[in-house]
Structure formats: C-alpha cells, structure tokens
Amino acid sequence: SREGNTRLLADLSMHTSLLCGILYQDERIYVIGHADKNIILKVDMNGEVEKVFETKPDRVNVNHLISQNGQIFALNTQMFSMYLLGSDEISSKVINKVEVDKSYSGSASVDNFGNIIVGTDPPASKIVVIDPRLERKHEIGCDFLGRVRATAVDKQNHLWVGTDDGNLYIAKYLK
Length: 175
Fold this sequence. Notes:
Blueprint: E1 18-25, E2 28-34, E3 38-44, E4 49-55, E5 62-68, E6 71-76, E7 82-84, E8 89-90, E9 109-110, E10 116-119, E11 126-130, E12 137-141, E13 148-153, E14 158-163, E15 168-172
Parallel strand pairs: 4-8
Antiparallel strand pairs: 1-2, 2-3, 3-4, 5-6, 6-7, 9-10, 10-11, 11-12, 13-14, 14-15
C-alpha cells in the first residue's frame, strides 16, 4: 500500500516565493522559482541548494522544465520557446527553430524518441510534435474542444492528453 506521508525536503523561501516547475534528473531536483526575477534552483536529495541559475542578460519568463537527451530546457510562459539550462545560467537564446502558435508550455513533454510534444489552445486544439533536432514540427488535430494542459507518452507510445475541462484522452500519435 502507498501512503501520502510527506516531509519537507527544503525550505526555498530565502531564494524565491513561488515554485512552479519541477524536474528530477540525475539525483537532483530542478525547481523554477518566481519572485523579482525567474530563477531555477538545483537542489540535491538532502534539500541543499547547489546552484541558482538566473536569466541573463534579459528576463525570460519560464514556467516549465523538460529534459531531452540529458539536456534541461526551460520553456517560456507566453509563447513557445525553449531555453537551454547551461552550466551557469539560463540561456537567453531561443533554441527551437519552429514556431508553435497559442501553445501552453506547461503541456510540454518528451516522448521515447526525443520528440517534444506540446498542446495548443482552441479554437483549433492541436498536438504539435517537434523533432529531436527542434527543426521540424508535425501537427495533429484533436477532436475535442478543451484546452490541452498536459501531455505524456507511456512506454507503449500512447499519447496521454489532459484538458482544462477535466478530461483525459489517450491516442496513438505515431504511424
């Protein structure tokens, strides 16, 4: 049986006031914090902050993290753009070479082949699949009206889609 017991791993309030994106990779937790500026905190499994990444030189508004082929990307809140988390800072250079209109970065995920999956908003809700090199995209029309708020791909390559009206969909998206 599973229990919902929680324990505080880290009090990050001295660094930021609002946490919004979390990613686990290589025995570390990466957390986006919003305060006066956006930062990403690298936290070890003991709750110690190892590094604080800041956006330089411009303020980049990010709210979601994904990992693709071992690299961590922060995703822009207002428009679909990906920024590489470097050794010292969040890059201010947009990495992706494709444009995705009316997307919600919180919906982004990575499939088993390194493709980036992101949902778009109505009136034409779509799933956009971006190739691992971030150069090409393929759009898949959806037969529902809700806004896409979350995506995930399981080991059998089923695409799971969560919408803001509370529905969960499953689809085959690969040919």
